[in-house]
């Protein structure tokens, strides 16, 4: 049965996809940070220069994607996702099992993206598999940065800069719109999405990565209470507001009637102000060593078995 055209359904779908993707990514980021220790890359202390390099990479990458032919682009995305999965899974299940799981997930994504998109059910199955791939990549990358020394201060400034970048590349130079159209219907789509009827709704990997970074950096720096506040900001400003804005104005609807909202433009300023409040209220951020020390204190110790005396 076909889904009737409705002005409400696309909004509800976008809202559900954004909230679900954000909450699942954040929850897994927190769980991974608490349970899994990654090998820290030999890059020294994370500082402002790293933010400049990271931002430059993010600015250049979409432009690179636009000029790269489709096949090399898909190969590059496949290698990126493969690397992220390997880095994230290896500390948990070991190298052999990691490569088996990664091989299955990557192969399934390619096969489903090329053979199952002729029906709505096929699209839905593809999105579920692709969503797993994208969320795992976001969780791995966020933890790699935060466990490697990235602080909440870095994330807050990064989000603020991305807010300007996102607005420019959506309204002034619509690169975001073009990229969204280019990826749709191909394997390794760098977004979490779902389809109902004729409607697709997505939230980008970059957005989920920033939300995950923000929450676990807040958790590392100031503890669970700060992380809960960061989660509220990520959900409200990063998921709910961008999903509902097109209902209020058509400025976010392009000539193809696609809805493109620069989510970071709403999230970045709110995240930065929250960081400033945490800094002023609680002082200096806690290091990764301090965070791990608190985990060791909070983790219940296993009582030693008393030796039986004959």
Largest sheet: 2 strands, antiparallel
Shape: globular
- The tally of strands reads 2
Please provide the ordered H/E string of secondary-structure elements: HHHHHHHEEHHHH
Q: Tell me the Rg in angstroms.
A: 21 Å
| Tally of individual helices | 11
What is the first-to-last residue Cα distance? 75 Å
What is the quaternary state of this protein?
Answer: single chain
* Structural class computed from helices and strand pairing: mainly alpha
Strand arrangement, largest sheet? Answer: 1-2
Mean pLDDT: 83
Report on the structure:
With 310 residues, this protein is mainly α. The protein has one domain. 73% of the residues lie in helices and 4% in strands. The chain contains eleven helices and two strands. The chain has helices at 8-35, 48-67, 70-93, 95-115, 120-147, 152-172, 175-183, 205-222, 224-248, 263-282, 288-298, and strands spanning 191-196, 199-204. Strands 1-2 form a two-stranded antiparallel ribbon. β1 and β2 (199-204) form a beta hairpin. α2 (48-67) crosses α7, α3 (70-93) crosses α5 and α4 (95-115) packs antiparallel against α5. The protein is globular and about 55 Å long. The termini are far apart.
List the helices and strands and how they pair.
Blueprint (H helix, E strand, L loop, with lengths): L7 H28 L12 H20 L2 H24 L1 H21 L4 H28 L4 H21 L2 H9 L7 E6 L2 E6 H18 L1 H25 L14 H20 L5 H11 L12
Antiparallel strand pairs: 1-2
A few lines on this structure:
The protein has helices at residues 8-35, 48-67, 70-93, 95-115, 120-147, 152-172, 175-183, 205-222, 224-248, 263-282, 288-298, and strands spanning 191-196, 199-204.
């Amino acid at each position: 049965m076909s889904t009737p055209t409705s002005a409400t359904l696309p909004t509800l779908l976008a809202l559900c996809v954004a909230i679900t993707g954000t909450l699942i990514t954040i929850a897994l980021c927190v769980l991974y940070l608490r349970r899994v220790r990654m090998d820290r890359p030999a890059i020294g202390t994370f500082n402002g220069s790293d933010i400049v390099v990271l931002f430059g990479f993010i600015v250049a990458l979409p432009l690179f994607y636009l000029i790269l032919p489709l096949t090399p682009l898909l190969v590059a995305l496949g290698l990126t996702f493969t690397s992220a999965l390997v880095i994230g899974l290896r500390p948990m299940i070991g190298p052999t099992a990691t490569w088996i799981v990664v091989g299955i997930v990557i192969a399934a994504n390619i096969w489903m993206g090329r053979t199952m998109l002729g029906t709505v059910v096929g699209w839905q199955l593809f999105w579920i598999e692709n969503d797993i791939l994208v969320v795992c990549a976001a969780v791995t990358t966020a933890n790699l940065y935060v466990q490697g020394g990235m602080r909440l201060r870095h994330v807050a400034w990064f989000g603020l800069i991305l807010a300007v970048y996102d607005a420019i590349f959506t309204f002034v130079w619509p690169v975001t719109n073009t990229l969204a159209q280019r990826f749709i219907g191909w394997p390794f789509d760098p977004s979490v999405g779902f389809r109902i009827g004729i409607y697709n709704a997505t939230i980008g990997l970059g957005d989920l990565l920033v939300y995950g970074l923000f929450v676990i950096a807040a958790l590392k720096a100031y503890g669970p209470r700060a992380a809960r506040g960061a989660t509220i900001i990520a959900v409200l400003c990063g998921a709910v507001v961008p999903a509902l804005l097109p209902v209020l104005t058509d400025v976010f609807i392009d000539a193809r009637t696609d809805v493109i909202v620069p989510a970071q433009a709403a999230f970045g300023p709110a995240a930065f102000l929250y960081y400033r409040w945490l800094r002023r209220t609680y002082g200096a951020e806690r290091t990764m060593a301090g965070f791990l020390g608190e985990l060791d204190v909070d983790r219940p110790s296993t009582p030693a078995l008393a030796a039986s005396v004959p």
